[in-house]
Amino acid sequence: MNISEQIETSFGDGPSHRPLEDRLSAGRRARRRRKSTEGLAVVAGVAVLGLAAYTLAPSGSPDTAKDPGFANPSTATPTDPSVLERLAALEASKWATYDPDGNVVLGEGVTERRRVPNPLNSPLPEKSVGLELERNGERLWMLLEYEIRDGDGVSSYVPEPAQKSFETLEQWLDTQGARQEAREQQRPSSAVDDDFAGSEGLR
Amino acid sequence: MSLKPAAEASYAEFVAARQNHLRRVAYAICGDWHQADDLLQTALVKLYVAWPRLHRAGREEAYVRQIIVRANVDQHRRPWRREAPGLDGHDPAAREGLPVEERSVLFEALQELPDMQRKAVVLRHWLGLSVAETARELGITEGTVKSHTSRGLEKLNAVLTLQ
Q1: Chain A partners within 8 Å of B132 (Cβ)
Q2: The pLDDT value given to residue B49
Q3: Residues ≥6 apart with Cβ < 8 Å to A96
Q4: Size of interface A-B (CB pairs under 8 A)
Q5: Cα separations in angstroms, A103 against A128, A164, B36, B136
Q6: Does the beta carbon of A193 lie under 8 angstroms from any beta carbon of chain B?
Q7: Which of A7, A134, B39, B99 has a CA 20 to 30 Å removed from the CA of B115?
Q8: Nearest Cβ partner of B78 from A8, A174, A194?
Protein backbone atom coordinates (compact mmCIF):
# COMPACT_ATOMS: atom_id res chain seq x y z
CA MET A 1 0.00 0.00 0.00
CA ASN A 2 1.52 3.36 -0.99
CA ILE A 3 1.48 6.48 1.10
CA SER A 4 -1.55 7.86 -0.73
CA GLU A 5 -3.64 4.77 -0.01
CA GLN A 6 -2.40 4.69 3.55
CA ILE A 7 -3.43 8.29 4.14
CA GLU A 8 -6.80 7.64 2.50
CA THR A 9 -7.50 4.78 4.86
CA SER A 10 -5.95 6.33 7.94
CA PHE A 11 -9.12 7.92 9.25
CA GLY A 12 -12.85 7.48 9.06
CA ASP A 13 -15.58 9.52 7.46
CA GLY A 14 -16.37 11.65 10.50
CA PRO A 15 -19.80 12.64 11.79
CA SER A 16 -22.82 12.74 9.51
CA HIS A 17 -23.00 15.45 6.94
CA ARG A 18 -25.35 18.40 7.07
CA PRO A 19 -28.58 17.72 5.21
CA LEU A 20 -28.32 18.44 1.52
CA GLU A 21 -31.16 20.96 1.84
CA ASP A 22 -28.99 23.01 4.24
CA ARG A 23 -26.24 23.14 1.67
CA LEU A 24 -28.68 24.18 -1.03
CA SER A 25 -30.33 26.84 1.14
CA ALA A 26 -26.98 28.38 2.04
CA GLY A 27 -26.03 28.42 -1.62
CA ARG A 28 -29.31 30.05 -2.62
CA ARG A 29 -28.89 32.74 0.04
CA ALA A 30 -25.39 33.48 -1.17
CA ARG A 31 -26.56 33.64 -4.75
CA ARG A 32 -29.44 35.94 -3.80
CA ARG A 33 -27.04 38.29 -2.00
CA ARG A 34 -24.76 38.32 -4.99
CA LYS A 35 -27.60 39.10 -7.35
CA SER A 36 -28.89 41.86 -5.11
CA THR A 37 -25.51 43.60 -5.07
CA GLU A 38 -24.54 42.68 -8.59
CA GLY A 39 -26.18 45.58 -10.34
CA LEU A 40 -24.46 48.14 -8.16
CA ALA A 41 -21.19 46.27 -8.19
CA VAL A 42 -21.10 46.00 -11.95
CA VAL A 43 -21.95 49.66 -12.30
CA ALA A 44 -19.12 50.44 -9.90
CA GLY A 45 -16.80 48.17 -11.79
CA VAL A 46 -17.71 49.71 -15.10
CA ALA A 47 -17.17 53.14 -13.60
CA VAL A 48 -13.75 52.13 -12.36
CA LEU A 49 -12.74 50.46 -15.60
CA GLY A 50 -14.24 53.22 -17.68
CA LEU A 51 -12.36 55.86 -15.77
CA ALA A 52 -9.22 53.79 -15.91
CA ALA A 53 -9.55 53.33 -19.65
CA TYR A 54 -10.05 57.05 -20.04
CA THR A 55 -7.15 57.95 -17.84
CA LEU A 56 -4.85 55.22 -19.06
CA ALA A 57 -5.38 55.77 -22.77
CA PRO A 58 -1.93 56.24 -24.30
CA SER A 59 -2.81 59.49 -25.99
CA GLY A 60 -5.37 60.58 -23.48
CA SER A 61 -5.06 63.49 -21.20
CA PRO A 62 -6.24 63.14 -17.61
CA ASP A 63 -8.34 66.23 -17.94
CA THR A 64 -11.35 65.42 -15.85
CA ALA A 65 -13.10 68.65 -16.76
CA LYS A 66 -13.67 67.26 -20.26
CA ASP A 67 -14.90 63.92 -19.03
CA PRO A 68 -18.69 63.88 -19.22
CA GLY A 69 -18.76 60.92 -16.89
CA PHE A 70 -16.74 62.56 -14.17
CA ALA A 71 -17.74 65.43 -11.96
CA ASN A 72 -14.60 67.45 -11.40
CA PRO A 73 -14.15 67.84 -7.64
CA SER A 74 -12.89 71.37 -8.11
CA THR A 75 -16.00 72.53 -9.93
CA ALA A 76 -18.70 70.39 -8.38
CA THR A 77 -20.35 71.67 -5.25
CA PRO A 78 -21.15 68.58 -3.23
CA THR A 79 -22.65 69.22 0.15
CA ASP A 80 -22.99 65.66 1.37
CA PRO A 81 -19.68 64.46 2.89
CA SER A 82 -20.30 61.04 1.40
CA VAL A 83 -20.26 62.64 -2.05
CA LEU A 84 -16.82 64.04 -1.31
CA GLU A 85 -15.70 60.62 -0.21
CA ARG A 86 -17.03 59.10 -3.37
CA LEU A 87 -15.28 61.66 -5.51
CA ALA A 88 -12.04 61.07 -3.64
CA ALA A 89 -12.42 57.36 -4.26
CA LEU A 90 -13.07 57.96 -7.94
CA GLU A 91 -9.90 60.03 -8.12
CA ALA A 92 -7.97 57.24 -6.41
CA SER A 93 -9.24 54.76 -8.96
CA LYS A 94 -7.14 56.52 -11.54
CA TRP A 95 -3.94 55.40 -9.85
CA ALA A 96 -4.33 51.69 -10.61
CA THR A 97 -6.92 49.11 -11.51
CA TYR A 98 -7.31 45.63 -12.85
CA ASP A 99 -8.16 45.60 -16.54
CA PRO A 100 -11.00 43.29 -17.69
CA ASP A 101 -8.46 40.48 -18.17
CA GLY A 102 -7.18 40.74 -14.62
CA ASN A 103 -3.92 42.57 -15.33
CA VAL A 104 -2.88 45.39 -13.04
CA VAL A 105 -2.72 48.64 -14.99
CA LEU A 106 -1.17 51.81 -13.59
CA GLY A 107 -2.43 55.29 -14.30
CA GLU A 108 -0.45 57.89 -16.16
CA GLY A 109 2.57 59.10 -14.21
CA VAL A 110 2.06 56.48 -11.51
CA THR A 111 5.05 54.44 -10.34
CA GLU A 112 4.73 51.16 -8.50
CA ARG A 113 7.03 51.19 -5.48
CA ARG A 114 5.97 47.97 -3.82
CA ARG A 115 3.62 45.07 -4.43
CA VAL A 116 2.17 42.51 -2.00
CA PRO A 117 0.73 39.62 -4.03
CA ASN A 118 -2.67 38.25 -3.14
CA PRO A 119 -3.08 39.69 0.38
CA LEU A 120 -6.65 38.38 0.56
CA ASN A 121 -5.60 34.90 -0.55
CA SER A 122 -8.19 35.11 -3.28
CA PRO A 123 -8.71 31.80 -5.06
CA LEU A 124 -8.16 31.89 -8.82
CA PRO A 125 -9.61 33.25 -11.03
CA GLU A 126 -10.19 35.91 -8.37
CA LYS A 127 -7.16 38.01 -7.53
CA SER A 128 -6.03 40.63 -5.09
CA VAL A 129 -2.94 42.75 -4.78
CA GLY A 130 -1.64 45.39 -2.40
CA LEU A 131 0.27 48.25 -4.00
CA GLU A 132 2.33 51.18 -2.86
CA LEU A 133 2.16 53.77 -5.61
CA GLU A 134 3.71 57.16 -6.20
CA ARG A 135 2.66 60.04 -8.41
CA ASN A 136 4.17 63.51 -8.32
CA GLY A 137 5.75 62.83 -4.95
CA GLU A 138 2.47 61.66 -3.43
CA ARG A 139 2.28 58.08 -2.18
CA LEU A 140 -0.88 55.98 -2.04
CA TRP A 141 -1.62 52.46 -0.84
CA MET A 142 -4.21 50.49 -2.78
CA LEU A 143 -5.83 47.14 -2.25
CA LEU A 144 -7.18 45.91 -5.58
CA GLU A 145 -9.51 42.98 -5.98
CA TYR A 146 -10.54 41.29 -9.19
CA GLU A 147 -13.58 39.07 -9.62
CA ILE A 148 -15.44 37.47 -12.49
CA ARG A 149 -19.15 38.18 -12.47
CA ASP A 150 -21.21 36.57 -15.18
CA GLY A 151 -18.15 36.39 -17.36
CA ASP A 152 -17.09 40.02 -16.85
CA GLY A 153 -13.99 41.08 -14.98
CA VAL A 154 -14.84 43.50 -12.19
CA SER A 155 -12.20 45.49 -10.35
CA SER A 156 -12.74 47.02 -6.94
CA TYR A 157 -10.34 48.81 -4.69
CA VAL A 158 -9.61 50.46 -1.36
CA PRO A 159 -7.27 53.49 -1.39
CA GLU A 160 -5.41 55.05 1.52
CA PRO A 161 -2.69 57.71 1.61
CA ALA A 162 0.53 55.86 2.48
CA GLN A 163 1.28 55.71 6.20
CA LYS A 164 -1.79 57.75 7.06
CA SER A 165 -2.91 55.26 9.70
CA PHE A 166 -0.36 52.46 9.63
CA GLU A 167 3.40 52.20 9.52
CA THR A 168 3.60 49.55 6.84
CA LEU A 169 1.63 48.47 3.81
CA GLU A 170 1.38 44.95 5.25
CA GLN A 171 -0.23 46.20 8.47
CA TRP A 172 -2.76 48.19 6.50
CA LEU A 173 -3.53 45.23 4.23
CA ASP A 174 -4.00 43.00 7.26
CA THR A 175 -6.54 45.46 8.62
CA GLN A 176 -8.41 45.55 5.33
CA GLY A 177 -8.49 41.77 5.33
CA ALA A 178 -9.79 41.77 8.90
CA ARG A 179 -12.56 44.16 7.96
CA GLN A 180 -13.56 41.97 5.09
CA GLU A 181 -13.49 38.96 7.39
CA ALA A 182 -15.68 40.75 9.93
CA ARG A 183 -18.19 41.69 7.26
CA GLU A 184 -18.39 38.10 6.12
CA GLN A 185 -18.90 36.87 9.66
CA GLN A 186 -21.80 39.26 10.15
CA ARG A 187 -23.70 37.64 7.31
CA PRO A 188 -26.17 34.80 7.92
CA SER A 189 -23.82 32.50 6.08
CA SER A 190 -20.19 33.43 6.50
CA ALA A 191 -19.34 31.54 3.42
CA VAL A 192 -19.25 33.94 0.56
CA ASP A 193 -17.05 36.66 -0.76
CA ASP A 194 -19.63 37.84 -3.17
CA ASP A 195 -19.80 41.50 -2.30
CA PHE A 196 -16.42 42.55 -1.03
CA ALA A 197 -16.79 46.15 -0.01
CA GLY A 198 -13.52 47.09 -1.63
CA SER A 199 -15.23 49.65 -3.79
CA GLU A 200 -16.62 51.31 -0.70
CA GLY A 201 -16.00 54.75 -2.08
CA LEU A 202 -18.49 54.03 -4.82
CA ARG A 203 -21.33 52.82 -2.68
CA MET B 1 -32.23 32.73 -5.70
CA SER B 2 -31.86 29.20 -6.99
CA LEU B 3 -29.93 27.80 -9.85
CA LYS B 4 -31.98 26.43 -12.70
CA PRO B 5 -33.45 23.03 -11.75
CA ALA B 6 -31.06 21.06 -13.96
CA ALA B 7 -28.04 22.96 -12.64
CA GLU B 8 -29.17 22.56 -9.05
CA ALA B 9 -29.71 18.86 -9.61
CA SER B 10 -26.21 18.44 -10.95
CA TYR B 11 -24.84 20.45 -8.02
CA ALA B 12 -26.73 18.26 -5.55
CA GLU B 13 -25.44 15.16 -7.30
CA PHE B 14 -21.87 16.43 -7.06
CA VAL B 15 -22.25 17.26 -3.36
CA ALA B 16 -23.73 13.87 -2.54
CA ALA B 17 -20.99 12.06 -4.43
CA ARG B 18 -17.97 14.04 -3.30
CA GLN B 19 -18.68 15.59 0.11
CA ASN B 20 -17.25 12.63 1.96
CA HIS B 21 -13.93 12.77 0.18
CA LEU B 22 -13.77 16.55 0.28
CA ARG B 23 -14.41 16.70 4.00
CA ARG B 24 -11.72 14.13 4.58
CA VAL B 25 -9.35 16.38 2.67
CA ALA B 26 -10.34 19.24 4.95
CA TYR B 27 -9.95 17.01 7.99
CA ALA B 28 -6.53 15.84 6.89
CA ILE B 29 -5.49 19.45 6.60
CA CYS B 30 -6.96 20.89 9.77
CA GLY B 31 -7.32 17.84 12.05
CA ASP B 32 -10.74 18.75 13.41
CA TRP B 33 -14.06 17.46 12.11
CA HIS B 34 -16.06 20.56 13.04
CA GLN B 35 -13.57 22.86 11.40
CA ALA B 36 -13.41 20.52 8.43
CA ASP B 37 -17.18 20.70 8.12
CA ASP B 38 -17.10 24.49 8.23
CA LEU B 39 -14.37 24.59 5.60
CA LEU B 40 -16.39 22.28 3.38
CA GLN B 41 -19.57 24.28 3.86
CA THR B 42 -17.73 27.49 2.98
CA ALA B 43 -16.36 25.91 -0.16
CA LEU B 44 -19.69 24.38 -1.21
CA VAL B 45 -21.55 27.66 -0.85
CA LYS B 46 -18.98 29.37 -3.04
CA LEU B 47 -19.26 26.50 -5.45
CA TYR B 48 -23.05 26.91 -5.65
CA VAL B 49 -22.67 30.57 -6.61
CA ALA B 50 -20.13 29.78 -9.31
CA TRP B 51 -21.61 26.40 -10.30
CA PRO B 52 -22.61 27.03 -13.95
CA ARG B 53 -19.18 28.32 -14.91
CA LEU B 54 -17.18 25.75 -12.93
CA HIS B 55 -19.37 22.83 -13.96
CA ARG B 56 -18.97 23.73 -17.61
CA ALA B 57 -15.21 23.85 -17.15
CA GLY B 58 -15.15 20.60 -15.17
CA ARG B 59 -13.32 22.37 -12.34
CA GLU B 60 -15.78 21.72 -9.51
CA GLU B 61 -13.59 19.53 -7.37
CA ALA B 62 -10.37 21.45 -7.95
CA TYR B 63 -12.20 24.64 -6.99
CA VAL B 64 -13.59 23.20 -3.76
CA ARG B 65 -10.22 21.74 -2.82
CA GLN B 66 -8.58 25.08 -3.51
CA ILE B 67 -11.09 26.93 -1.33
CA ILE B 68 -10.57 24.44 1.49
CA VAL B 69 -6.81 24.72 1.37
CA ARG B 70 -6.76 28.48 0.89
CA ALA B 71 -9.31 29.11 3.60
CA ASN B 72 -7.26 27.07 6.03
CA VAL B 73 -3.99 28.67 4.91
CA ASP B 74 -5.69 32.00 5.29
CA GLN B 75 -6.74 31.29 8.84
CA HIS B 76 -3.19 30.43 9.78
CA ARG B 77 -1.55 33.31 7.98
CA ARG B 78 -3.63 36.24 9.06
CA PRO B 79 -2.33 37.95 12.19
CA TRP B 80 -5.81 38.51 13.62
CA ARG B 81 -6.22 34.77 13.54
CA ARG B 82 -2.81 34.00 14.92
CA GLU B 83 -3.40 36.36 17.81
CA ALA B 84 -6.35 34.26 18.99
CA PRO B 85 -4.65 31.30 20.67
CA GLY B 86 -7.90 29.97 22.09
CA LEU B 87 -9.68 29.91 18.77
CA ASP B 88 -11.77 26.80 18.31
CA GLY B 89 -10.01 24.17 16.35
CA HIS B 90 -6.59 25.75 16.72
CA ASP B 91 -5.86 24.49 20.17
CA PRO B 92 -4.60 20.93 19.71
CA ALA B 93 -5.91 19.96 23.12
CA ALA B 94 -9.40 21.07 22.15
CA ARG B 95 -9.50 19.38 18.78
CA GLU B 96 -12.31 17.01 18.28
CA GLY B 97 -11.36 14.05 16.18
CA LEU B 98 -11.99 10.37 16.18
CA PRO B 99 -11.67 8.44 19.42
CA VAL B 100 -8.02 7.64 20.01
CA GLU B 101 -8.49 3.93 19.41
CA GLU B 102 -9.93 4.58 15.97
CA ARG B 103 -7.15 6.79 14.79
CA SER B 104 -4.39 5.23 12.81
CA VAL B 105 -0.78 5.75 13.64
CA LEU B 106 -0.26 7.33 10.24
CA PHE B 107 -3.02 9.85 10.77
CA GLU B 108 -1.64 10.76 14.18
CA ALA B 109 1.78 11.20 12.62
CA LEU B 110 0.29 13.31 9.87
CA GLN B 111 -1.35 15.59 12.41
CA GLU B 112 1.93 15.94 14.27
CA LEU B 113 3.64 17.40 11.21
CA PRO B 114 4.11 21.16 11.10
CA ASP B 115 1.24 22.85 9.32
CA MET B 116 2.79 23.44 5.90
CA GLN B 117 4.54 20.07 5.86
CA ARG B 118 1.20 18.38 6.46
CA LYS B 119 -0.54 20.35 3.74
CA ALA B 120 2.27 19.79 1.28
CA VAL B 121 2.21 16.03 1.92
CA VAL B 122 -1.57 15.87 1.62
CA LEU B 123 -1.66 17.80 -1.62
CA ARG B 124 1.33 16.10 -3.23
CA HIS B 125 1.07 12.54 -2.02
CA TRP B 126 -2.61 12.03 -1.33
CA LEU B 127 -4.34 14.24 -3.85
CA GLY B 128 -1.61 13.82 -6.44
CA LEU B 129 -0.96 17.47 -7.25
CA SER B 130 2.28 18.36 -8.99
CA VAL B 131 4.98 20.35 -7.21
CA ALA B 132 3.98 23.42 -9.20
CA GLU B 133 0.27 22.99 -8.41
CA THR B 134 1.02 22.47 -4.73
CA ALA B 135 3.22 25.55 -4.67
CA ARG B 136 0.45 27.58 -6.28
CA GLU B 137 -2.22 26.35 -3.89
CA LEU B 138 -0.14 26.98 -0.80
CA GLY B 139 1.36 30.23 -2.02
CA ILE B 140 4.94 29.05 -1.52
CA THR B 141 7.84 28.31 -3.88
CA GLU B 142 8.36 24.95 -5.55
CA GLY B 143 11.62 24.56 -3.65
CA THR B 144 9.78 25.02 -0.37
CA VAL B 145 7.18 22.45 -1.42
CA LYS B 146 9.96 19.96 -2.11
CA SER B 147 11.63 20.56 1.20
CA HIS B 148 8.31 20.38 3.11
CA THR B 149 7.25 17.13 1.43
CA SER B 150 10.70 15.60 1.81
CA ARG B 151 10.83 16.32 5.54
CA GLY B 152 7.20 15.35 6.02
CA LEU B 153 7.57 12.02 4.27
CA GLU B 154 10.76 11.31 6.15
CA LYS B 155 8.90 11.69 9.44
CA LEU B 156 5.93 9.62 8.25
CA ASN B 157 8.18 6.85 6.98
CA ALA B 158 10.03 6.83 10.28
CA VAL B 159 6.73 6.32 12.10
CA LEU B 160 5.61 3.58 9.69
CA THR B 161 8.95 1.79 9.94
CA LEU B 162 8.47 1.46 13.66
CA GLN B 163 5.15 -0.34 13.18
Answers
A1: none
A2: 86
A3: A104, A105, A106, A107, A110, A112, A131, A133, A142, A144, A157
A4: 128
A5: 11, 27, 34, 18
A6: yes
A7: B99
A8: A174
